[in-house]
Amino acid sequence: MALLGDGEVGKSSLISQLIHKKFDSYYDPTIDEIFEHWIKIDGEWNEIELLDTAGKEEFSVMKDHFIRKGIVFYVVQSI
């Protein structure tokens, strides 16, 4: 599962909410981080891999690789 979007839109905060059950309101620029997390879907435990992509294009080293092999994508946008 890859979260895509510009910098400062909340991709890292959404992952923190899912994994740690807390919402981080401060901004710390990300340089492509991968998280593994277990989640229950339809009564079965499944391991998911979350890619928190860099919002700044020059910092994204893994984005193309994960887009090619990814299955689920979330585009996060600030309105």
Summarize the structure.
With 79 residues, this protein is an alpha/beta fold. The protein has helices spanning 11-20, 63-69; strands at residues 2-4, 33-41, 44-52, 73-75.
Structure description:
- This protein has 79 residues and is an alpha/beta fold.
- It has two helices and four strands; from the N terminus they run βαββαβ.
- It has a single domain, classed as P-loop containing nucleotide triphosphate hydrolases (Rossmann fold).
- The longest helix is centred in the N-terminal third of the chain and has 10 residues, at 11-20.
Distance between the termini: 22 Å
Mean pLDDT: 77
Task: Give the SSE order as H and E letters.
Answer: EHEEHE
Write out the strand line-up for the largest beta sheet, numbering strands in chain order: 2-3-1-4
Provide the CATH topology: Rossmann fold
> What is the assigned CATH homologous superfamily?
P-loop containing nucleotide triphosphate hydrolases
Q: Structural class of the helix and strand makeup?
A: alpha/beta
**Beta-strand residue fraction:** 25-35%
Poorly predicted runs: none
- Number of distinct beta strands: 4
- Specify the oligomeric state: single chain
Q: What summary fits the major beta sheet?
A: 4 strands, mixed
CATH top level assignment: Alpha Beta
